[in-house]
Predict the 3D structure of the following.
Amino acid sequence: MQLNNEEIRRYSRHLILPEVGLAGQKRIKATSVLCIGAGGLGSPIAMYLAAAGIGKLGIVDFDTVDYSNLQRQILHTDADVGRPKADSAKETIQGINPNCEVVIHNTRISSENALDLIRPYDIVVDGTDNFPTRYLTNDACVILKKPNVYGSIFRFEGQASVFAPHLGGPCYRCLYPEPPPPGMVPSCAEGGVLGVLPGIIGCIQATEILKLALGKGHSLVGRLLLFNALDMKFRELKLRRDPQCPVCGDQPTIKELIDYEQFCGIVPESEPTAHPDEVTVQDMKKALDNPGLGIKVIDVREPDEYEIAKVNGVPLLPLSQLNERFTELDPNTQYYLHCKAGVRSLKALNFLRQQGFKYVKSVKGGITAWSDEIDHDVPRY
């Protein structure tokens, strides 16, 4: 793998590093990386790897660019809204470094295609935002003996590691043997994320990839790096491989990919999703338009969200205060609870049921569905 004169000029600041040099830059060029996700984490990962001279970069993403992505997903611009993220990513990456071969996989990674997608690449980097894909990526990497460069973000905090049992470290399942119950951990869409946070964690992941390519330094294998942006503090936890791990343990029981949606307790979209305790935004509108029905609507989001968007005539009672303020409500009155998308309102419903409230329903889709289906003047956020 040779470097031409243009590449020597481009990578000159690498070449004069004794730890990289010409031989190291050739190793970087000879390395192939599969980036799963072209969003908040995938953006800095892909951009910096391309700039650094990674020879082949695969991008797996089936989503399209939305305005809400632009606050942190710097692969994409305003002009890309509505385009497939994989296509937008390829265009940006090739603009950064035309020497980087970009292979786009405009598909959802699944148990059926994961091994075929990952097999041709040297290193896999996890830029996903959901638990089924994290467990799928982990298991596929363990089976194929590929390093899995992990990162995750939420609100102001992030974490990163390198899972590689074949290099003597643990896998993702050693750290998190079981996924949290569905809805227990809010997504970034529900809980928010500081725009620069994925840039910090993604750059750490990109750094680990380059170190693996070079065979230099001390990687995050066996270590979990925790970052808190508000406090501007890093912490480190030591990780050990679990001998009882069902994937990388001494006697593994998972030797092929499983149904990860089912494993994480997620009902496939193709199955009926009607919830006995849910009503629609049309039901909510009917309740608001007809006070004689005796149904009261409560917003259980947080005050900052209420300021962004609200439905006229709907009072606020945040889920975070419900434990102390539920006595303000009448257990004999029928309530419709709504939040942003329907996750927190179900939590509020379950809490009130435990307190003896019998006539409580959650509004499916929350204020997002209200904006989409009832009143477009209510902002989506």
